[in-house]
Amino acid sequence: MQEKIYTSNGNIMYIYRIMKKYTDVDNPLKVKEIIELIKQEYGEELSSRTVRRNFKVLESKFDIVISKVDDSYYMDYEDNDFDSSEIRCIVDMVNYSRFVDEKLAQSLTYKLINQLNENSKKEFVGYEKYMKDNKTKNKEVFYNVKTISEAILNKKYIEFDYYKYNLKKEYEFRKAFSVFPLTIICDIGQYYLIAADKEKNLFYYRLDRIKKIDIVDGKPINISKEKLNNYIHSTVGMYGGEKETVKAIVDKQLLDDVIDKFGREVQLKSNNDDSFIMETQVNLQGFKNWALRHLENVEVIYPEKLKLDVTETLEEALNNYKK
């Protein structure tokens, strides 16, 4: 015998779903409009008395605020809900992140937008992203995140194959690794695994270049939080190494970039109307690459070995162009 479904028991859910889907402070609904939408979407006919009674239940039992404007009602924004501006930020991060492949980005965008009510969804009509085709083709990134997170939680090792591009713009196998995962961080639009080998040396790996990952047993490695933080904070663009004091004269037009890149701990001192002197503790290789990217706006003045290294790199580049 088929079990009977008592649809009237769902009255409060019908009302809640309609209010959440269609109403906000700018788009309240009259009770008769709520009744009509419930009939259209769920095939159930409710009385106005039932709707108003369930409004009170939502407020008293579930702390859901139903506000009234004249003869219309709307559901107030809930603390655990996203508003459209928050969803927009997350959608943009998904679509402009290089570690999320195109198909997954589209799927996540659809899911995120569907968290909004029908009125807010209209803000995304015609949404497009504008970026070069530099997204990863590795569809295993989110699986990698899940597997690495599980390994970290259970203090296990991971084994994986590591890939890099060849001149045909294809991923090719480079090396297999077995490491103890410590954390996952995001830097310059990429996801990175920070891990240790059995000698407690720290390394980083791009998650979008990891394939065929497995969790394996092994003796856990204890890395102090201080050592891990120093390793992470000593990098620029994920170049590992020890931190050293660096000073440079920088054009003022790069001030925002300097603070964004090196953090609020960076020391700044005015040099003249057009430039300032920055001082920070950072990995030299990473700083060199950053300085070369802003060649016309950055002059390294300390340490001398870094200044010489930058000079030699520029001389080599100049000689290559003279050939």
Itemize the secondary structure elements and their pairings.
Blueprint: H1 11-22, E1 29-30, H2 31-42, H3 48-62, E2 66-69, E3 72-75, H4 84-96, H5 102-113, H6 118-121, H7 141-154, E4 157-165, E5 171-187, E6 190-196, E7 202-206, E8 210-216, H8 225-233, E9 244-251, H9 255-262, E10 267-270, E11 275-282, H10 284-293, E12 298-302, H11 304-322
Antiparallel strand pairs: 1-3, 2-3, 4-5, 4-8, 5-6, 6-7, 9-11, 9-12, 10-11
Helix pairs in contact: 1-2, 1-3, 4-5
**Could you say which overall geometry the principal axes of the C-alpha atoms support?**
elongated
Strands side by side in the biggest sheet: 7-6-5-4-8
Q: Mind telling me which CATH architecture of the largest domain this is?
A: Roll
Q: Output the radius of gyration.
A: 28 Å
User: Order of helices and strands, N to C?
Assistant: HEHHEEHHHHEEEEEHEHEEHEH
Largest sheet: 5 strands, antiparallel
